[in-house]
Amino acid sequence: MSDFSAYALRNSKERGARTSSGYGMLALAAVLLAGTIWIGFQIGTWPDWMAAVGIGIGSIAVLFVAAGFYLLQPNQAAAILLFGDYQGSDRNTGLRWAWPWLTKQKISVRIHNITSERLKVNDLRGNPIEIASNVVWRVADTAMALFDVDDYKEFVNIQIESAVRAIGSRYPYDEFEDDKITLRGNADIVSDEIKAELQDRVALAGVSIEECRLTHLAYASEIAQAMLRRQQAEAVVAARAKLVEGAVGMVEMALEQLSEKQVVELDDERRAAMVSNLMVVLCSERDTQPVVNSGSLYQ
């Protein structure tokens, strides 16, 4: 038998507990208390042994009923145990009652919100990055959360770190060579993958992951400056390419209009010189200073 199969045989599963509303038992306790007090007033008219027995039985009955009360707030559950054996979970709110020999172990099923610490992870290309995620989760199965893991909150915290590390190392931080998915460019996809990865990991604890979103993503400090210069260089190259593309179009348009309107006839050498001058003027980052030719075109 495999390890997983052996674990599956021990796996807990939430089921409803046999409990009742506490308000009816509260009325019964009030009646028993009133009867015990009434018996106390009969001392002197009843035989002493009979009054003592009545008071004793009434007191024990009141204490017995009172020992079974417990309260459940909204989004709170109680696991009912009989000498350590799981009997079921009660999710009904308000005043509840169960047999006094049953143990009631309360657990919150409210929404929990955790922001992981900033983890240093190597991305797909080996670059160290810092990544953190915010996770919204809740307990879906109280029996699994209480009895299948030692501390379900600590278990979730550890699995969040493991899932973030696993997904953070699966993709590159930024697009270098036509990467389809990157951590910076596809944050929603990465967050959904972290959620799916985390849900698989915490399913053993009966926990449901409601939402997962990246809260921090950056290069590690030791390479941040180098990567910033690389990004700046890429931006400069992209801007230059756009500028050259526009300048070539403008030069082409200028030569075509000069030729169509027969403003001036240029041979190949002067045409090349004019193209060079126009490209310098259009692509220069500084204002150009024109030189006026007072002689002929070929001087």
Automatic annotation (TrEMBL):
The keyword Secreted does not apply. The keyword Ribonucleoprotein does not apply. It is a single-pass membrane protein. The chain crosses the membrane at residues 21-43, 49-72. It comes from the Bacteria. Signal peptide: none annotated. GO terms for cellular component: membrane. It is found in: Membrane. SMART domains: PHB (SM00244). This is SPFH domain-containing protein. It comes from Stakelama tenebrarum. The lineage of its organism: Bacteria, Pseudomonadati, Pseudomonadota, Alphaproteobacteria, Sphingomonadales.
